[in-house]
Amino acid sequence: MKAALLVSSLIFAQAVPAPDGLPQQHPLGHVTQSRGQSKPGFWPSGLMSSTASNAVDQTVEAFESALEAAQRAASRLSHRLEAALDEHGDGGHKHRDWSGKTIYQQIHACKYTSRFAKLVDKYPDIVKLLNGTHRDSNITLFVPVDKAFEDPHRGHKHYDDDDKEATEKLLRYHIGIGEYPALRILATNTLPTALHQERLGGDAQRLRTSVGLGGVEVNFYSKVVAADFKASNGIIHGVNHILAPPPPVGLLLTAFPSHFSTLLLAYEKTDFVNFVHGVHMPGGSTVFAPSNGAFTRLGEKTNSFLFNTGSGRKYLSALLKYHIVPNATLYSDAYYDHVDSETKPLASRREHYDLTTLLGDSRVSADVLRWAGFAFFRINGFAHVSVRDGVAGNGVVQVLDSVLIPPHKHSATATDNDSDTAGSMDVEELKARLEPYL
User: Fold this and answer.
1) For the chain, what are the domain ranges?
2) Distance (Å, rounded) from C-alpha 200 to C-alpha 221?
3) Would you give per-residue pLDDT tens digits along the chain (438 residues)?
4) Which pTM value belongs to this model?
């Protein structure tokens, strides 16, 4: 089996601790539906990453020192994984060419992935997928190392004790459709998995990938600790946390009140949750979620009108409707459209969408620019997506740095208006914009 590319890749090297030192797991699936008290670590690290990046950029020497240490750790891990695989060669002989073996065979041969392999054995369809020939299988497995299964909140309970249907979904969520070696991941924002979800209209649930000073992260909380193990039917990457299928959008937002408390308060004051539950959205949705800072930018008087007056509630409700695109899920590199029955990757560097919202016939304008593995969103010509691709069980969350205000009714598009207010607006202008939709 080929050695991981972590040592030669600066980005991947930064991610790697030795296997014995992996942090313990807090799976996303343990967020309580009713209270949302257990934080799954899905967004906070992503929300704070830009701050961390700025700090480290100012301390170049400290960064270089940390990088050298990470490269040494990467080298140790690469050698340990290869040694573990060599121990399982036929007749005690070392077989270094593992590319002829399937993904299924390789995870069984490695002592660091034995728990995931044991779990796979109970699901024939998963075995078939991981053991397929190259002609009928072209996949990428993000395999959790054994340490990832040690969660103090579960005691000694194992995933093979759980509901079989839920466990099979969890296994499928670790399987990316298509080959994603390290270099391709560096230019990827999300990737489809073998888990197809009814709440996404039957489309593939996606994994979010990102590159930062901590290395490559999957869904914000799981780090790639070993990359590019080639198999006959795809690629294997080792990760240090189990990848649990994400919860619904509402539960996701509730789990992080420090970032979305104002939005959650708006939902509460307008009884918006009951409204949304009555809307038929079988094809998923895109939720543009204003952060607490986005609401602050509206201004004190406008917020007071929306939140503290009886007459302001209907305008607040209209604003919330304007931030939800039903039956269409827009990721930074894929688009699931169940309005026009279209699913496609975003192939060009620039993409433009006019998306229908829950607010009558109003539309949101979305421009996506991709360059060198990075994605930049601009909504209605001025609002930026500060955190992209918060994958959810029933759609995606794109976090905004400004609250979206619909254009005047006479405007042809969402950008044909004075939307250069950077999120601020006085009460009378706000009422003029929203009045036609009430």
Assistant:
1) 10-239, 249-437
2) 23
3) 433 333 333 333 333 333 333 223 222 222 223 333 333 332 333 333 333 333 333 323 333 343 344 444 444 444 444 454 444 444 333 434 467 899 999 999 999 999 999 999 999 999 999 998 766 679 999 999 999 998 655 444 555 556 899 999 999 999 999 999 999 998 899 999 999 999 999 999 999 999 877 789 999 999 999 999 999 999 999 999 999 999 999 999 999 899 999 999 999 999 999 999 889 898 999 999 999 999 999 999 999 999 999 999 999 999 999 999 999 999 999 999 988 766 666 666 788 999 999 999 999 999 998 877 688 899 999 899 999 999 999 999 999 999 999 998 766 455 544 444 556 789 999 999 999 999
4) 0.76
Q: Tell me how crowded residue 131 is: count the other CB atoms within 10 A of its CB.
A: 17
Shared fold status for 10-239 and 249-437: yes
- What is the architecture of the domain spanning 10-239? Roll (2.30)
Q: Residue 40: what residue type?
A: P
Pairing type for strands 139-144 and 234-239 reads: parallel
Residue partners of 105: CB distance under 8 A and separation at least 6: 131, 231
Backbone φ and ψ of 346, nearest 5°: -90, 105
Q: Where are the beta strands (DSSP E) in 152-214?
A: 175-177, 190-196, 204-212
Show the tokens assigned to 228.
């590019």
Tokens 């990757």, residue located: 345
Q: What is the CATH number of domain 249-437?
A: 2.30.180.10
The Cα–Cα gap between 393 and 210 comes to 19
